[in-house]
Structure formats: structure tokens, C-alpha cells
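This entry is set out below.
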Amino acid sequence: MSDRLAVRKTYKLYIAGAFPRSESGRSYPVTDGKGRFVANAAHASRKDARDAVTAARKAFPGWAGRTGYNRAQILYRIAEMLEGRRDQFTAEVRHTGASKAQAAAEVDAAIDRWVWYAGWADKITAVAGAANPVAGPYFNFSTPEPTGVVAVIAPDSPLLGLVSVVAPAIVTGNTTVVVASEPAPLTAITLAEVLATSDLPAGVVNILTGHRTELTPWLASHMDVNAIDLTGVPDGDVPALEDKAAENLKRVFRASDDWAGDPGTARMTAFLEVKTVWHPVGV
């Protein structure tokens, strides 16, 4: 029998393409479905949230300026890498109490969902935009553009729900600060490892682990966050967060989705701004 001690993994934050420890030095224990210790996850602070917003803002112009086709290529590459780590993700989903078959099915669905959103990258503009009829010698076009920095409060669905809220925000050119599931954060950091080794630019996705009740109010009130997805927030906390978000007219989105169902386009269009352009005919 081997006397070797296992090397336990240290789960950190993911900010600006790097994996820093929390500025506060705090961590919290993550347990499995039976209450057994699995790992320690970083307990992000208000300062970490500010750093993540700064990274997302810095990455926004470059990511929004890429063509939809190029964003599709990058997101599809991420799906390829998710497929390569299928066994690892399955093992981490099982920590939440899922059976092996249930965990494998969730991982497969999450990979398929990522591919589905990747396919929309060069199509959503045509679907959400329009050429508008006008009574005059003008062309009038409505074209959707990304909102900016989106804070995403992820649901407790450890992988499929996470993918279903992150992918639609970034596929249209937004950058994100994601607060991972508090009880099941491990798949979020493993996803971050995939993103860090793909060709997704640093800062497009930033992932924080820790207590939602501590992080979400700061993101809701942050003046450089343009929109917030409150999907992972309990019903009773929503009104207070909406009040904070109103301070800088943030877009607020919240939907309790059936993650296994058809996702539709609502999550993509929720974080788009429509710009209308007039142009004289013949000029």
C-alpha cells in the first residue's frame, strides 16, 4: 500500500485570465451531497469584485469589436476543450449528489448548450436587427450592440445552469463577472481553467467564488456594471438588488429556467442595446 499523500487542489478565483487567491486570504469549505469535505474554495471579497469589474471593462472593447464569426470560433474551441475534460466535469458534478449517469448527462447537455450558443454568434445580429421602412429617401437600420459589463449571479445547477447563463452573455460581445454557485463552485473554477487555456481573451469571463449575499449587492450597485443577471438570487433578495441596480440604470434580467429545455434567444437579447442608424439613399 502506498504511503503517498494525495495533492489536494486549491481552488482560486479567476480574474483577468489569472488565478489569484482572494485579496482577503479567506476560503470556505465545499462539501459533497452527503456533507463530506471536498475542497476549500476562495472566499472573494468586495475588492476582488472590483478587480473583476476592472478586468471585464478593460476586455470589453476588444471582445465587442471582434466579428461574430470569430467569437463563434473561440466559443466552439471552448466546447472542444470541455469535451476533453468530460470525465473531470462528471466527477465534480457527482460531488453534488448526482448519480454517475445523471452527472454524465448534465455534462453532455452543458457541452451541447455551449455549442448551441456558439452557433448564434454570427446570426443574432441578423435575427435581432432590422431594416425599417420609412416614408422618405432614407435607409433606416436597427442593429443590436453589446451592453457592456454584465454581472451574472449563477444558479446552483453546477454546470448546465452555469453554462446557460455565461455563454449567452459573452456570445454577443459582452464581458462578464460571474458569481459562481456558493454550495457547488468547483465546476465553475474548472470551467475557468478551460477558458484560461483557450483563446478567449483575458477578462471576458471573470469568476468569483464565495457568499452571494456578500458579493451581489456590490455588483448591483457598482457604477461600471451595465447589466446584471439575478437568476441565482433568492426571490426575497431581488427587490433590494433591483433598487441598487437602478442607481445607474442597469439592465436587470432574471428568469427561472428549465435548464433542460430549449433556451431560446431571450438571454442573448436581454444584454443587447439596439442602435438605430439613418442614412440618405444614394449617398
Notes: The chain has one domain: 40-280. The longest helix spans residues 100-120.
